[in-house]
Amino acid sequence: MGFVVTVLASFLAWRLYERIAPISGASCVDEPPEQTAIIDVRDYQLADHEPFEQAVNIPFAYLKRNLEMIPGKQVHIIADNSLNRNLSIRYLRRKGYGVTSYTLTECPCKSYSAPRF
Questions:
Q1: DSSP letter string over the chain?
Q2: Which residue in 73, 80, 101, 117 has the fewest CB atoms around it within 10 Å?
Q3: CATH topology of domain 2-104
Q4: Are 41 and 79 in contact (CB under 8 A)?
Q5: What's the rounded Cα separation, in Å, for the pair 4 and 69?
Q6: Is there a contact between 36 and 75 (Cβ–Cβ < 8 Å)?
Q7: What is the model's pTM?
Q8: Is the distance from CB of 55 to CB of 38 less than 8 angstroms?
Q9: What pLDDT, in 10s, does the model give residues 13-55?
Q10: Where are the domains of the chain?
């Protein structure tokens, strides 16, 4: 019984780590770097309401089946919260993409705003 509890606790700790722990090597920037693909991992409704120029909208839930839509190996992430940011960056890095920067749209300190149409 103790082994099962230990395995379950380890699994839950790992899942919590993936969601909450900060990402190293990726910085929050106001403008995406040049020569990078811009991937918007927000939900379709949010991305449609506040579009980002030149961004490919692939919500996090659809990343696995739409990796071929990403136009390059260097990626900038646009996310609405830190959970989607963390999960997206970790997933893309496991798949061989270089994610070096991101933009959080719901960050109170952001100075970059999406164009309104």
A1: -HHHHHHHHHHHHHHHHHHHSPPTT-EE-SSPPTT-EEEE-S-HHHHHHS--TTEEE--GGGTGGGGGG--SSEEEEEESSHHHHHHHHHHHHHTT-EEEEEEETT-TT----PPP-
A2: 117
A3: Oxidized Rhodanese; domain 1 (3.40.250)
A4: yes
A5: 40
A6: yes
A7: 0.80
A8: yes
A9: 888 888 788 788 888 887 888 889 999 999 999 899 989 889 9
A10: 2-104
